Amino acid sequence: MVDVLVIGGGNAALCAALMAREAGASVLLLEASPREWRGGNSQHTRNLRCMHDAPQDVLVDAYPEEEYWQDLLKVTGGATDEALARLVIRASSRCRPWMRKHGVRFQPSLSGALHTARTNAFFMGGGKALVNAYFRSAEALGVRIRYEAPVQRLELREGRFVAAFVGDERIEARACVLAAGGFESNRDWLREAWGVNARGEHPADNFLIRGTRFNTGVLLKHMIDAGADTIGDPTQAHMVAIDARAPLYDGGICTRIDCVSLGVVVNRDAERFYDEGEDFWPKRYAIWGRLVAQQPGQIAWSIIDAKAVGRFMPPVFPGTQAGTLGELARGLGLDEARFVQTIEQYNAACRGGRFDHTALDDCRTVGLAPAKTHWARPIDTPPFYGYALRPGVTFTYLGLKVDARASVHFGGRPSSNLFVAGEMMAGNVLGKGYTAGVGMSIGTAFGRIAGTEAARAARTPQKEPVHAAA
């Protein structure tokens, strides 16, 4: 029998496996994907949001706890557990030396990378390099790893973990960490959660999945059915407006369109529907997927002119380009008269002084609904560009309720040997909204906690309950 079983193969799972092994436990990690697709959504990440009180190697200035907390509070609208959120924030200031010890390397924020030089430490080589570094370190430490080993169900006894099942194979362990991701790749569950809108559409049918195809939520569903306490809304997710031409799965970072705050966004009716300049892009980029999901046909278009070029990370695929607004409308398949009217009304409403995309400037609209509150400049300099947008789901927020020990709860009581980390519990901190890099902060903090607690639980003698239920 192994001491600690870790179910999952992304950042949170790997942090748990490494911490448990460092604590002296024998560890088996079960990854659902083949080896070449290992790492879950973590392979598509780029950075970690880090609290720091002074400049640190790749991080400039300071990003203190209270500012981090206020940023999180703003994007979640208060839908967060403050104690657990602050635990994550403080942990983010202490984890990087440990990450380096396991082979992760950092680099400064790239120019145009969402203005994150002060708040986010970027992984050299991206998330794939981080995942590979952790797997190499885990193997060197003696963690056993099995690929193509999806867990469908657990054997539990009165809230205590006994065994996991991979098909008909029963795997026992003294303690277990669940880190198998959300349900974003389960189309049926997404359709059930989102239902049918007032237009008779199934919005989820038009969602693209930015991350792994292996996060189908089978284990999460099993835990809910087994009576584990849950938290979060199944329709809430890290959902970004991405290039409508992106693949159905695993498009990752490169599918994102980052010019929204530099222009306007219109829907299928060629109408604006939200303030594109509400706040800095790292704090607001993840609301746009949900906004697009609420539009007719779950599609929208980001519109810019030549003045915006060079001020954002360019998309992988070129947008539709035109010499006039009318020509652009025709190229996008939008009603030409309505589109031109929308842009001209916006142009006429633009007011303000000096444009500054690095600050909340005073370039705004007046007398326009919805307003654009910052970075509002007329779209009047050809060539003009349009990028079609679809909702891109990164991960879902419905998950298992936890405490500061990362324990799974049943009826309000924490399990003595079953823990959870990563997307399966991120809803405790992220009730809604997102800010760049916080998902990796949550996964790293709770992965490390879960691994430590699982190793401790494996060493603690337990009384065997009488009644069993699989």
UniProtKB/TrEMBL annotation:
For the keyword Transport, the answer is no
Q: Which keywords has UniProt assigned to this entry?
A: FAD, Flavoprotein, Oxidoreductase
Q: Which residues form the FAD-dependent oxidoreductase 2 FAD-binding domain?
A: 3-429
Q: What PANTHER family does this protein map onto?
A: FAD-DEPENDENT OXIDOREDUCTASE 2 FAD BINDING DOMAIN-CONTAINING PROTEIN, FUMARATE REDUCTASE
Source taxonomy: Bacteria, Pseudomonadati, Pseudomonadota, Betaproteobacteria, Burkholderiales
UniProt cross-references to Pfam families, sorted A to Z:
FAD_binding_2 (PF00890)
Species this chain originates from: Roseateles violae
Name of the protein in its database record: FAD-dependent tricarballylate dehydrogenase TcuA
Q: Which domain of life is it from?
A: Bacteria
Q: Which cofactor does it need?
A: FAD
Question: Gene name on record?
Answer: tcuA
